[in-house]
Amino acid sequence: MENKMSFGIKSKIIIGYLIVIICLFIAFIVLNSQISSLQKERNFIIDHDIEVHDLTNRIEKHLLDMETGQRGYIITGEASYLEPYNSAASSWEKDYNALYQLLNNNPNQQEKLEKIKGSIQDWIEAAGEPTIALKKENNTKELQQFFEKDPGRQYMDDIRSQFTSFRNVEKKSTETRATELDEKNQKIKIGLYGLLLFVTLISLAIAIVLSNSIVNTIKEVTQTIKRITASKGELKGRIKVRSNDEIKDLGIATNALLENIEERNWLQTNIAHAVTMYQGIASVDKLAEKFLFTVSEMTGASFGAFYVREENDKGDLFVKQAAFADRKGDAGRESFLIGEGLIGQAALEKRTLLINDVPDTYQLIASGLGDVKPKSIFIVPVLFEDEVIAVIELASLHEFTVLEQELISQVIETFGLTINGVIRRMEIARLLKESQAMTEELQAQSEELQTQSEELQMQSEELRMINEQLEERTKDAEEKSFELEATKEDLEEKAHQLELNSQYKSEFLANMSHELRTPLNSILILSEMLEENAAKTLSEDEEEYARIIHSSGKDLLALINDILDLSKVESGKLDVLLAEMNMSELPDQIERNFSHVAEQKKVQLKINKAQDVPDIIHTDEKRFQQIVKNLLSNAFKFTESGSVTVSIQRVADHRLTTAMRTVDTDCWLEIAVADTGIGIPKEKHQLIFEAFQQADGATVRKYGGTGLGLSICSEFAKLLGGWISLSSEVGKGSTFTLYLPSLSNGLVDYEKVNFAYEEVAVSVEEAEPEAEITEIDHPVQPVEPSLQDDENVFQDKRVLIVDDDQRNIFALKTALAKQGMTIMTAHNGIECLEMMKNSEPFDLILMDIMMPQMDGYEAMQKIRGELKLVDLPIIALTAKAMKNDREKCLEAGASDYISKPLDLNQLFSVMRVWLVN
After folding, report:
1. CA-to-CA distance for 72 and 82, rounded, in angstroms?
2. Beta-bridge partner residues of 394
3. For the chain, what is the mean pLDDT?
4. Phi, psi at 327, each rounded to 5°
């Protein structure tokens, strides 16, 4: 109700302003009314009087136009002068009527207007119309007589004097109204000043009343606050305000602030007292009793219990340490587990519980006169580092106020630290007693440790000296490491240069092979044809010359192949093709290939094969055969008499070395080639396995050879996972023994095998089927082909030879023409395609690979692709022994492949196969 009836400062100020605004509004209405009235009178003067004068002037003008037009027409007789006359005669009455209506509120002026109108009409009737009529009749005499009297002049003078009198009256009337308007304007000005003064006085009165109402109330509040301030902390006084406005609200808020400050002071005082009261207490039970007594005194609690956490086998157990108003020790239970009952739940949830609706079964508070039921229960957990270390339960006959709850909560915030400190001090005291007992024992041990420390100090000094020596060695090692790193970089650079040199050497040898094989091809073919002497035109000496040329050519071819193979081995680009090899056929192969050599040199050939040698081993048969043939060839070469013995046996398990056992193999074979030849000095045993090396110069001169065979055999043996050993004595003969594993599980990583000879790391790739290995020449019984069969196959066959070397073309053309074939030639791929387009079909093409303008690869692709000659036999011929030449030729479209120099028997055999098919 007070709030509804309150009349605030804002309301008072608004009402004061409303009164002032209303007064101003009334003054504005009055002033606006007066100004509107003045405006109307002013507009009347402006509109009415000006209109009157204007109409008067217009009537006079019309009269002047009539007079002028009359006189002009009479004088000149021109009809045009009658136009203004007639116009004015028809218009003056309209203006007169308008003027007459305008003066309807002034009868005197209307009366004067009527006289003026009569004068005008008299002039028209007496002077205007008659003279014009006489002029129209051209009655000059009467006109002259009329103007001699001139009655019209008198009328005009009267009209002018009447108009002058009319204007003067109107002018006076205008001046009179202007004077009245000025007087009224002066009155309005005086009234405006008076109204402004009135509004000012009203505003001042309202302002004084409002300010007195506000200032007096504020002074009362200020005086009350000063009295409270002067009371030196006594906050019992309160502000009393009689007004019912915002000042009263300010007083009420100030009183609430004072009450709050008083409560804060009480709270801080009690907190400070509670904090200081348990200083110096060294036991938990004393601390609990003191705390319960102090808090009960502050809050008016009538009953209480204090529980502290202890650890046992069952977990955390809260045990009662103190009670307030205890009746024979029954103030609460002696202990509880966490989560047990309300007090246990409070400890579990770490939150305060306040219960005001206490059940009837709760324990009563005892007094001298009887037992009383509590009205409120307050359970507070005490926390330390977010762990509950104690719980306090208080009961009171009154409900705990918010201030009392806050007091307990703030005291509890730091009380956990105090409890923990007391517990720690008790623990420290206990440990101190134990430590004192242990100190005596430690003192005895300390003396022993002192002795040991002196010994350790001496050892430490020795270690320091050793450490300094190690640091010096470390620095030396780092310097050497830098030197080794620089050396490593130099070696890597040199290895890179060696790799480039090896690559350049391989390319050079391959190109040189092509350049050497091309003329060698012509030499071999032509020498073979001369040796056959089919036409019987050569003598025996000439046939011998041809045989020597052919043999020399084949030796040169063997030398080229040896150099190429050695280059491939050294660069690690010789491929190995592992496959099954039938060892049971090896003796027959050796017998078949070398029996005639033995017969020629009258040397006995012996072949011994043990029973335990497996029939099948896994190795590269071609490389194996090359090694055996080279060893046998050398044995026969350097043996003049006696025998050459080949022994093939399996290495027994007890003879296997540690290195041999590391190889993943089924078995090890031992192939020994022993001869009774010249023998090799011991100091030359390693030398002969190097390239272009032999035992001595005399041997070279007597027996010849290049010194490449054993070097190649040694490298081949390493590629196949084995090695070759040598046992020799000068004058008694030599024994070369090949140790070779059966590589059923793949090639051997030779870096992991430490043989008795130098270790060599080789990079193994896929086999090169076309790679030519040096073979030892031995007499072969010539197989004469059936001339009848050749003639039947080759007779009248059209063969196209495509080669840029005229020597090869001549040799091939001569050899093929003897077989009855028709030969056409082309020097490059372009000529070949032109001939095939413009001539009859060919039965077979012999295609060289390396040619100018268009090589053999591109020519064969165009023959197969553009010309669609898929079934035409094309045999590729090349002298460049490069890797994968055979595959490239077959992919380009070749039907078969033969490397130069050509063997005519091989060539005829291949041609026969493709021509028959």
Report:
1. 8
2. 304, 378
3. 76
4. -110, 100
Residue 358: Cβ within 10 Å count: 15
Closest CA to 879 of 374, 511, 343, 454: 511
Per-residue pLDDT, 788 = 43
Please tell me the predicted confidence (pLDDT) of residue 777: 35
Burial of 442 (0-12, 13-18, 19+ CB in 10 A): exposed
Tens digit of pLDDT for each residue in 847-875? Answer: 988 888 898 999 999 999 988 888 899 99
Kindly report the number of other CB atoms within 10 A of residue 403's CB atom: 15
Q: In what order do the strands lie in the sheet with 798-802?
A: 822-826, 798-802, 844-848, 874-878, 896-899
Q: Provide CB contacts within 8 A for 377, sequence distance 6+.
A: 353, 354, 355, 358, 362, 393, 394, 395
Q: Is the pLDDT of residue 201 over 70?
A: yes
The string over 233-248, giving b where at least 16 C-beta atoms fall within 10 Å of a residue's C-beta and e elsewhere, is eeeeeebebebebbbb
pLDDT in tens, 121-146: 777 777 777 877 777 778 777 777 77
- pLDDT, tens only, 672-712: 999 998 888 877 777 777 654 555 443 334 454 445 667 77
CA 528 – CA 522 distance, rounded (Å):
10
CA distance linking residue 730 with residue 752, whole number of Å: 35
In this prediction, residue 781 has a pLDDT band, given cuts at 50, 70 and 90, of very low
Q: Side-chain half-sphere of 685: how many Cα atoms within 13 Å?
A: 15
Contact 303, 324 (CB under 8 A): yes
**DSSP H or E segment with residue 897:** strand 896-899
Q: What is the C-alpha to C-alpha distance for residues 893 and 885, in angstroms, rounded to an integer?
A: 13
Pair of tokens at residue 914: 């493709």
Q: Could you tell me which of 727, 844, 746 has the C-alpha nearest to residue 797?
A: 844
Tokens for 152?
A: 């019209």
- For the chain, the straight-line distance linking the first and the last C-alpha, in angstroms and rounded, comes to 132
DSSP 687: G
pTM here? Answer: 0.33
Give the rounded distance of the alpha carbon of 19 from its chain centre. 75
Q: For the chain, what is the largest distance between any 2 Cα atoms, rounded to a whole number of angstroms?
A: 202
